[in-house]
Fold these 2 entries.
Entry 1:
Amino acid sequence: MAHHIFEPTHYHTTIGSHSPVLEVAAGDSVSTTTVDSRGGDASGALVTERGNPQTGPFLVKGAQPGDCLVVRLDQLHPNRRQGYTRGVIAPNVLEPGFVPQFDDLFDDDGEYIQWTVDTDAGTAHVAEPEGLLAGFTLPLEPMVGCFGVAPARGEAISTATSSMHGGNMDYRGFRQGVTVYFPVFVPGALFFLGDGHAVQGDGEIVGTGIEISFDVTFTLDLVKGKRISWPRAESDEYLMVAGNARPLDQAVQHATTEMVQWLQQDYALSARAAHVLLGQAVEYDLGNVFDPAYTMICKISKSVLARLA
Amino acid sequence: MAHHIFEPTHYHTTIGSHSPVLEVAAGDSVSTTTVDSRGGDASGALVTERGNPQTGPFLVKGAQPGDCLVVRLDQLHPNRRQGYTRGVIAPNVLEPGFVPQFDDLFDDDGEYIQWTVDTDAGTAHVAEPEGLLAGFTLPLEPMVGCFGVAPARGEAISTATSSMHGGNMDYRGFRQGVTVYFPVFVPGALFFLGDGHAVQGDGEIVGTGIEISFDVTFTLDLVKGKRISWPRAESDEYLMVAGNARPLDQAVQHATTEMVQWLQQDYALSARAAHVLLGQAVEYDLGNVFDPAYTMICKISKSVLARLA
Amino acid sequence: MAHHIFEPTHYHTTIGSHSPVLEVAAGDSVSTTTVDSRGGDASGALVTERGNPQTGPFLVKGAQPGDCLVVRLDQLHPNRRQGYTRGVIAPNVLEPGFVPQFDDLFDDDGEYIQWTVDTDAGTAHVAEPEGLLAGFTLPLEPMVGCFGVAPARGEAISTATSSMHGGNMDYRGFRQGVTVYFPVFVPGALFFLGDGHAVQGDGEIVGTGIEISFDVTFTLDLVKGKRISWPRAESDEYLMVAGNARPLDQAVQHATTEMVQWLQQDYALSARAAHVLLGQAVEYDLGNVFDPAYTMICKISKSVLARLA
Amino acid sequence: MAHHIFEPTHYHTTIGSHSPVLEVAAGDSVSTTTVDSRGGDASGALVTERGNPQTGPFLVKGAQPGDCLVVRLDQLHPNRRQGYTRGVIAPNVLEPGFVPQFDDLFDDDGEYIQWTVDTDAGTAHVAEPEGLLAGFTLPLEPMVGCFGVAPARGEAISTATSSMHGGNMDYRGFRQGVTVYFPVFVPGALFFLGDGHAVQGDGEIVGTGIEISFDVTFTLDLVKGKRISWPRAESDEYLMVAGNARPLDQAVQHATTEMVQWLQQDYALSARAAHVLLGQAVEYDLGNVFDPAYTMICKISKSVLARLA
């Protein structure tokens, strides 16, 4: 159970079978850093091209297609005070033809709202434009926007989007303490992560969270021979499945079907019990409704499962 | 502020400009009953045709198109012990081509799961098929599945679906204590309600909550001259907007646009402030992903709004 | 086989169980008129409220739920020279956020493009704004935008939209000479029609065809005991099915499933033969991508069917 | 204007920045072969892995990002007699929950319908299962299912899907004689093609056309400095644009917006004229409704454009 310290020297804007930057054993943890969505590091310097550049990939020895990669998000820590968001809700999230009328000089296409991220206070507030939401703060909820594993067939998938391999799911529930499960498609699994958000609303409807660079620590492990189809996750309170697709209806289908199978396989529920239970106890979160693939989360409370005989 | 006791003698399976069963003044409350989705009353007797039969309509004196009808759900109380749900997740919520394999003799098309609803204990559990989810209970969260006002143009819209007038939104957040706002389309508003659920999961993915008859009390009021486009609601914790459409993407568009306008009009936010705030603080709930129109809820925490200067 | 001449005195903007204006026998034909989408008659006078006002309903004696209503469109004839269209592609048909930039003073929300419809020449051309598409003509292809039968359950459905009962399908293939089949939901069927277009592009992407009043003649007949689910149609060249829903994907599902069943029931194809044949020979038309429900047409060439043994 | 004969030795199941197999000058033509979707060559031998393996990439000297690649499909010729299709309409094209009932022993998941492709007669007919569609033939309409150029950012996109770079569009209109335009994203453009179909219905609703290997000849050319966003094409009769996305609604948005821009840029239409003209004269074809991204074609007849002053 080694603990590796890794300092990245280059980044990737696709998730694919790129050369690993570090080989680790199942059970090892890694402490490293991620740059922000534009390639800015802890000092704010732009050190790589924009577009959710990823740290990694990390190769897990012994991982084979058909295994399940276990990623525990041990620590997600913004490592600077400057974050940024876009300042307008994306047009695909508003009524077709509804054009917002702003009374300021902010350039929606070229500018960002600047936020101060105060990790001591545990809050974020707008720094610029001056006067916007003056005196208002949001509690920090650091999360990882884009992470996942190399897909099959030699694909190299843009970090703008997501699919069965994970990717840019932009779900605010991927927080510190959560364990995420990915299907393994290639030997070594090849794990990437980046695109940290200090805060993000449901749906990432402005196209960003509060984008910022992170210090991260995660632990990588394997479940040999366990096939899953979509990213699964587990917090203290919930089992969660991410379905990634457009439209949201299809994301719901992916996530719900995977959850039914999870409950039948690992929680000894009959198909009937799984359907009846989910029918009255399932919950959904809207991950993102901005990226090329949208993300819906199907989840069930562990407290509900605990009450099963 | 009169309090009316109303005992229904007939029901409607469309929401339209039907003859009012009672005329009330703005500010009055009404105590009445609703039958279950199949037309069953407190005794279990089928007293009307199936399909979310509605109690009402209630005419509010003075209501005119362009006003806003205010409905406070004062009391939602299951009035019998027998509830029922469907026993299989709807095919449109699962992967196309995924056909669940059940190992029981339950008839998905013709039978219902029977639940015991214990309002003293505040729980529900499966009564039949025997042995299914044995020993398991869910806490009651009574909610109204279908309610709303007569639409414009003389339309009479099936209680299977929903739109700007409300209707079969099947959102678990429409609970006791919540205040709901509907646009008024016709003189008198003509308010209907029915389809009570003792419990319901997000999305109503089996096509039912725990369907049951209710004793209900609600208060009807008006905001004169206040135009809204989609049902809005308010609980102690949240402002909420319901968008009703297919696919879910479009429901998101309706709900989000209405929320932006609400914040600008009633919370003195500039367009920019509304966009930036929602971007990082908005939440969404999945009302239903089963009915002809799906329902997405866009909501914002009152605790967030309270922190605005 | 009587031939009725009917002169309408009022119109409906919902399709529902309204009082019949004329009772006819199966096999009878009717010659009547329809007003344009804004309620304008042959003289251009606005004689009723806007919104695809319908002529009818026509009651067919002996029609019962579970029968199939047969409507042959014998004659569709624009009866004046002035037509109109909207002048901008609807925002839901363009990229979210794409806002067209026009260099004229035309008011997209309040004005219409005026067309001259020359039934002698068989063409239409822009009359106003002057100079727009100067010298350009389109061949007339008169079609009926909105027609159908009263739905079940007492619904009265807006003539803005469509569903299993027909309605505002806005498919350019519903032309003179075509026979359309509707499911019968109520005794007498109750047939409505209106919303004639002198010309329309696929998809009705500006939200209108060239809107105009019509002289129409149609023949109504019945197939007793023949249940269908969605509007079917037949021209000299094609069998066609209309699926009406959002998104287009769902309209495709409705239309394709109905076509599979049609081929199996009436063309003696095995399920396998129907699937294999459609796989390589099916065609689709885009009816409308503007109305609340979109319309996709699934069709198969009669020349293909004629080659089956 | 050289003419190259190229014999492939390996294939790709992603479209990405792979090493070019041949460098050609703008204006050159290439004659080569493509394998079928499972990797079968003219002899039927499986020479590479399945999944629409592509011949190429062909590098066009001088091509730079921001140019437009011109591909003329000079010859598309099935080079063997054995083709195959799947035998069941894909579940996403049928009503959710509609499960076809076949009365044969054909294995939908593992088997293919076998077709005889007779290029002399110009027809295809089912060879196996024996007796299926006996005596029935379809005229050959050879088309290329998957072709396109390397995308930006180092992506390598699966040949199962499509996007702005082209890819698996499965549109029956990409036939011999058609000229297709792709945006260039990387130096040299890097053109791939494969997945020939002897015949295909609209929508590729069984998930295949009649899959077969091809002898192909194409000519590659450049328009320097011409930026386009989506694949465009031109036949003798039509201008066409392919929009690739899910749901179909979004594919319509991509294709229509690109067509508006094409008409304004290259046909000297004002924005108003383009909107008004398309409104009444646009046509749409359904490319595919099976692949991860669906394809809608927006097209306008050249005979319409020819009538513009």
Entry 2:
Amino acid sequence: MNKPRELDATLLEELTALLGSRVTTSRGVREHHGKDESYYPYAPPDAVVFPHSTEEVRDVVEICRRHRTPMIPYGVGTSLEGHVLAANGGVCIDLSQMNRVLAVHADDLDATVQAGVTRKQLNEEIRHAGLMFPVDPGADATVGGMAATRASGTNAVRYGTMRENVLALTVVTADARVVRTARRPRKSAAGYDLTRLFVGSEGTLGIITEVTVRLYAIPEAMSAAVCSFRDMKGAVDTVIRTLQHGIPIARSEALCGLTMKAINAYNKTAYKEQPTLFLEFHGTEAGVREQAELVQEIAREHGGEGFEWATRPEDRTRLWSARHQAYFAGLQLRPGARAVSTDVCVPISRLTECIVETSADIARASMPIPLFGHVGDGNFHCMILVRPDEPADLEEAKAFNERLVNRALAMEGTCTGEHGIGSGKIGSLEKELGDAVDLMRALKRTFDPLNLMNPGKVVRLDA
Amino acid sequence: MNKPRELDATLLEELTALLGSRVTTSRGVREHHGKDESYYPYAPPDAVVFPHSTEEVRDVVEICRRHRTPMIPYGVGTSLEGHVLAANGGVCIDLSQMNRVLAVHADDLDATVQAGVTRKQLNEEIRHAGLMFPVDPGADATVGGMAATRASGTNAVRYGTMRENVLALTVVTADARVVRTARRPRKSAAGYDLTRLFVGSEGTLGIITEVTVRLYAIPEAMSAAVCSFRDMKGAVDTVIRTLQHGIPIARSEALCGLTMKAINAYNKTAYKEQPTLFLEFHGTEAGVREQAELVQEIAREHGGEGFEWATRPEDRTRLWSARHQAYFAGLQLRPGARAVSTDVCVPISRLTECIVETSADIARASMPIPLFGHVGDGNFHCMILVRPDEPADLEEAKAFNERLVNRALAMEGTCTGEHGIGSGKIGSLEKELGDAVDLMRALKRTFDPLNLMNPGKVVRLDA
């Protein structure tokens, strides 16, 4: 672990004058901030600061900039591509104490929150008003982190990703200016779309400190269902046909037999250990019933068996918490293992083919690899379970992922549907978009000429 | 009218060597390309070229760049803020002959088209497959132009604007490179969102030559309705309550009594000449019926009278063509007049207040000003009918629009919901977004260092 070598005393003094005890160089805190949920080795920052306001973030940026010190924004560390690693040291700006919901406009169906508010916290604070924030990546990530990584998750097929659900941002730029990217109306044609430029920029163009998001009325009726299939193809084809019929399904998750086995072991449930769809329908009572009947019929045509309903809130919660725990359940398939998570996304017409070919690759692997994902978007994940101290495992995982990315790219897909580029997929991005990456480098140089904002992520500047 | 002074013989020779007779300096063609649907005076280009492919556009850009000559992309000239005016002369790149639908992926619900394909043409070519492209700004604009101006229109409340419906673009950059901004999956977290950066950039960052858009299954049932109200407040409040209930209404247009009068005169219809809502519902038979009943009840609570249904396709078409002709119908209220179109958009909770205050301003005006708009988005238009040869009219219109923009900005709104900045709203953009415009200028300088791509639009570089 690197020592806080880079930080000269003056920088620390200036930060401390600004934030007092909310500056630390303690080893434990630095270690905690030097990793995310990915398999990448620790890369701790030299110091961690905990600002409470946009103005404090601005002042931290100004100080770091004067000292030419890298800055790494941090939410709750749930990212999956090494986004928060301090590869070049520097100051980690932990935004988790910026956790106030600043405004809820129930009539406008929007809310403005500080970047450190988590999605569950936001949902708790708006539930009494009959509102919800639907973007749900599983982990209880911060809204700022979700915006920074263009997160999505199980509800995206109906409600979109962070791209569609962020209305405006407050950003501190690399030159320590506070910029509001847009005002609050639903739509605008006022100039370049700065909001969308910062959504998904992973802290490399500026630091998101406040986020205005869209909210939705909690539907009158919500009902979930589980259905198992003889093969993955049947499950995926069911979802594709559903979308082609224009049925506005809210969630559609496919899980392989191995994932179901892990879920059963972890949750003491008794699902069939076969390829399975978890579905959810939102709407009016009658609308939900109608949607569900149509989908049940489509599922039956594709070999679906034993449609089971979960209409009571507690049953729905149990079902989705089982889905959300797939990651932790999967880890238990190989005690002591860490997961290398893949994240390809392809046009849905190619999804069955992509999953079938990937399943064949899984069958040849030396380790267990559960597969599950957001099939309504064409996005699925493989959890490659590696032993952290076995370099051969990691090599095998990387080779598997590279084959998977190449397969997805050959099918007009993307190397990342929702996890982002981070440190891990810079090469894949270049393979995917070619010359467009030159434009991204130009953007990075324009917004961050000193390369201090989360350096080493998204693009390589030495290319 | 300026002469083709700037273009030296070499430039014309090079363009002619490339495109033959698809290069012209004829006065008539230049005049036609020197204006759009706005009230701005002619500013014709020095030459007009008609490329057929991305490669030809690239070669035109390369030639113009070498000669330091401005380039103005042009679709069918339906923009409303002087986007196509050749303020500094130069070469107009008319993309209307790039009108091939390149690929329709019915299974993936997307299509890739050349920029000159119009939205009606696209809809005709996909209807047989049960598909539709819903973004509908009224005019039969090109898909490329709609992407360039971030267009939306009557369906945006349900289906989103071009921001949400463009999956990927092919763009020719200012340095004559062909860049594909993204691949074809529904979602991606692969790097900076170049697609959204070019959507709404109005030809100032590069020239859009191909567009991949989302398609939707034509709903099983569609039904439209007309309902009149004693006042505009009742109409607008009906829509707001509908949205707050989460009812997925497809279109909701409010029109003032004067607009209804103009429509009746133009179409020989007999609508009540009162504030009116035009509504549309998409879904299954049962779903549409249920939505419509809920909305009818909400309308009744807000003083709605005489709900009239249009379920047959021909009745729906008549209704929406009446809505789309509101612009041309409005022009007939004052023979010989041109329209200054306003375009503010506010959070919906402020919409009633904004429309009520604006109506009071209309009552004081010396000219007729019909008002109508996409109230589900918070966006409405005033058509200020000016006599083109009366400078006092234009002055009054500009002052009216400035008051309206200031009113919208004071309500956290935007100066433009869907028409864009063009030549006309550069000052309003600065008022709206302040420091954020500095970032836009930096983007413009990065992507177009010689300021040749539709110069004088969106941002002022001398500021």
